[in-house]
Design brief:
Number of strands: 15
Strand content: 15-25%
Distance between the termini: 38 Å
Order of helices and strands: EHEHEHEHEHEEHEHEHEHEEEHEHEHHH
């Protein structure tokens, strides 16, 4: 059975910095989420607030309210915020210590490792709980440098990149994975950030918290594990940040380590400034596509849209505009699904199209 979990996301649920909580509410293979803590949205249904569909996962005002009303208490306390500075506030320390006192294991996605904190470890030992620092890398001796093994695998690899951080790359990846599996394909998903790992991705590594010389090799190694263990029809690799981003280099490592044969780019048309760097303008979709294709031996085969601050009619207008401008499919996977993406993938990788035709023949006969 899945362990139960409460997600702490005070003041940030449904926002860019609440992306870990948002992702877990949309999809959690590893934990059964029993609630979200965010006093600014107390008593709301988390699914209805996030996507307009009830999921019966309530939003609580505080940890104290959870302790009084939820029985049995959750097994896990997940810190669901992804702030740019990745450091706990003093009040948040107190809340996590309170969760430990009440027997909850701690899932920490920050780059501030709680297992290096004497006070947290003392409490964990005292109350018999574990602390899991999701982003904490293995010792350097256990990490990998790029080996070139990935150059020899025949499996199509698709990377879901974007024009900024927190634009929905992971969400699109997970939705596309499920859509392809529904068509009968064997798909491996490789997470590259903390949320995908917490959601329960079978393969993944938090690349933005490891020494740079190992980033590319670790991505390659996760893909190789997926290939060797599962022999999938295709592999989807989650993107991080943006190749053009002035503060992050994760996309560079993904393109070098994953060597994708195709890229899908996620873009929020209404976002004017970079999310965590609002003193800088967003890149254009055109410039990002050009940069990706110049930087690596791949092609952008589709565009996906983050519809933040957009009406449905605006989304539909932008889809038509992008398809005319770039001559590749465009869609919003949350609003319109993945059919266009799957068609583009099958056209890019004919061997997958042949496999699909074979599956249809088998089902018919």
């Amino acid at each position: 059975m899945k362990k139960t979990a409460i997600i702490y996301c005070e003041g940030n649920f449904g926002t860019m910095d609440g992306k870990t909580a948002n992702g877990l509410i949309r999809n959690s293979k590893k934990y059964m989420i029993v609630g979200v803590i965010d006093s600014t949205k107390e008593s709301l249904d988390s699914g209805e607030y996030l996507e307009g569909k009830k999921n019966n996962i309530p939003i609580y005002a505080s940890l104290e309210q959870v302790l009084k009303t939820v029985s049995p208490l959750p097994d896990q306390f997940i810190y669901g915020i992804a702030p740019a500075d990745a450091v706990l506030k003093e009040e948040e320390r107190k809340i996590i210590l309170k969760a430990i006192e009440n027997g909850m294991d701690i899932i920490n996605p920050l780059q501030e490792f709680l297992t290096h904190d004497e006070e947290f470890m003392k409490y964990a030992e005292q109350f018999g709980v574990t602390i899991h620092d999701v982003r904490k890398p293995l010792p350097n001796k256990d990490l990998h440098i790029f080996s070139g093994r990935i150059l020899d695998i025949p499996t199509p690899i698709i990377a879901i990149l974007g024009t900024d951080s927190a634009v929905g790359k992971r969400t699109t990846s997970v939705i596309l994975e499920a859509a392809l599996e529904a068509k009968g394909f064997n798909v491996s998903f490789v997470a590259t950030g903390q949320t995908g790992i917490i959601q329960g991705a079978k393969y993944g590594v938090a690349i933005d918290a490891m020494p740079l010389q190992f980033m590319i090799g670790e991505i390659e190694n996760e893909i190789m594990k997926a290939y060797e263990n599962d022999r999938p029809d295709l592999i989807i690799v989650e993107g991080q940040g943006a190749l053009s981003h002035p503060g992050y280099i994760s996309s560079c490592g993904i393109l070098r380590g994953a060597r994708p044969g195709a890229v899908i780019v996620q873009h929020p048309p209404k976002r004017q400034q970079l999310g965590d760097f609002n003193f800088m303008k967003m890149p254009t979709l055109e410039s990002e596509i050009e940069l990706i294709e110049r930087f690596s031996e791949t092609k952008v085969i589709a565009v996906t849209i983050n519809h933040e601050n957009m009406t449905n009619s605006e989304v539909d207008h932008v889809i038509v505009q992008y398809e005319d401008q770039f001559e590749i499919p465009a869609t919003d996977v949350i609003l319109h699904g993945c059919d266009k993406l799957i068609t583009s993938i099958l056209e890019t990788f004919p061997e997958l199209k042949e496999r699909r035709n074979h599956l249809v023949e088998v089902l018919v006969n």
